[in-house]
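[step 3/7] fold_predict: job queued, chain A
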Amino acid sequence: MESIMEQVKDMYLSPHTFWEEVKLQPKTEIELIRDYYIFIAAVPAIAGFLGSLIHGENFFRSVLWSVLFFGCAIGGIYFLSKVLAFMGKSFDVTEDEATMFRLAVFAFTPILLAGIFLLIPPLYWLTIIGVYGFYFFVIGLNKLITCPEEERVNFTIISLIVLLITTLLVFLIPALISGAAVYYSVI
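[step 4/7] structure written:
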């Protein structure tokens, strides 16, 4: 847990250095999920569960939202990494799916950590600080991905759109299926 906290601190305080370290990281997809990402994905799931109970939501609806959110958060990074790897072929990107997966996992971290504000319903709006994840994603894209210079801007813009769609899906699918108040208070 201490190494996770150290990584998160480095993400915010020295993002360029952080991505250089990620580039050298030999962890597999399973290791990243098991040792890092499940803890990150649990933050908004647990905060949203507790926050919706505070808001007066039905217990079972809150549990359903949390389970769906956690599953969507895990599935979202797989979706994002697969789409980026598929798109990369069209843009002459030389990196493999493992690199795209690391990019997806770490870039999605600030977005999910902003979910801590789901714990207190009046502070839901503070989840907007998760936008840092998009900036962090662009830094990671530039550090990890080798792309022809004439294709870099297009690849970056399309990748950001894919990240935005993935983020929307991760947050909206659980809310729409469960009908939990986690998203009603935001609107």
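[step 5/7] annotate
The chain has one domain: 16-180.
The two ends are 34 Å apart (CA to CA).
exit 0
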